[in-house]
Write a structure and sequence with these properties.
The structure is a single chain. By secondary structure, this protein is an alpha/beta fold. The chain has a domain of about 140 residues: Rossmann fold. The protein is built from six helices and twelve strands. The strands form two sheets. Strands 4-3-2-5-6-12-11 form a seven-stranded mixed beta sheet, sandwiched between helices. It has a five-stranded antiparallel beta sheet with strand order 1-10-9-8-7, with no helix packed on it. The N and C termini lie far apart (about 45 Å). The model has no long low-confidence stretch (mean pLDDT about 95).
């Protein structure tokens, strides 16, 4: 397990504290609809950090082609219908470019700045001319509105139970997931980013915001900076 990361509950736990069985149960929600509305029909999407395919599978059903990347073999075993590649996002070099590169699951908030930089460089390196990068950000109160919980329509509860500073602008976050028949926890490190800090991080990788896709600013469409309007 990586330092600062921990997971509990049934089944395999990845080095960053993610429980494979838990993620196979989580619903995709409205995220695939946001993605579908932001990119061309039938686009080839490079999904970075796909996990078990929570968003991969709905995107395939919508007619997209997906190349799914994750560093966990146990996660990738659950992905169906997509080309899968095992590897760390920040070290990825496929020698290919894609219509869409997607970095979801708040991965841009990695506690390690160098990991974040590597992830965004990978996004920029793999997006085709005329393509775009979709990034999912934390909400403005993600680190301050604690504790909080949400009950999913399918019947499970997601709770952000604690946020504790650990230094250098990084917080340790404890999430709890309760199902009728099982429970999991995940502790991970995350770095809050203001909108300005986020846009500066994009610029460092040669990317620029094209537009914010949601009113709360949590989904962003970015393009190479030389193309941005």
């Amino acid at each position: 397990m990586r330092e600062g990361y921990e997971g509990t509950g049934p089944g395999a736990i990845t080095p960053d504290g993610c429980a494979v069985e838990l993620y196979s149960r989580l619903a995709a929600g409205g995220e695939p609809d946001i993605i579908e509305a932001a990119v061309p029909a039938g686009a080839h999407i490079l999904e970075l950090g796909c996990g078990v395919g929570r968003m991969t599978h709905p995107l395939l059903e919508r007619g997209f082609t997906v190349t799914a990347v994750d560093e966990s073999a146990e996660m990738l075993e659950r992905v169906r219908g997509a080309r899968t590649i095992r590897g760390a996002i920040e070290e990825l070099d496929l020698g290919e470019r894609f219509d869409v590169v997607m970095l979801a699951s708040f991965l841009v908030h990695a506690g390690d700045v160098e990991v974040r930089r590597g992830m965004l460089r990978a996004c920029a390196a793999h997006v085709a001319d005329g393509g775009c990068v979709l990034v999912q950000r934390e909400g403005a109160d993600y680190h301050s509105n604690v504790p909080r919980e949400r009950v999913d329509p399918s019947g499970y509860t997601i709770r952000i139970a604690a946020v504790e500073p650990v230094g250098d602008g990084v917080n340790s976050i404890r999430a709890e997931y309760e199902f009728p028949d099982a429970a999991w926890t995940q502790t991970f490190l995350a770095r809050p980013l203001t909108e300005e800090q986020f846009e500066e991080a994009l610029a460092e990788a040669g990317l620029e915001v094209d537009r914010y896709l949601t009113e709360d600013g949590t989904w962003v469409r970015a393009v190479p900076a030389t193309r941005a309007a």
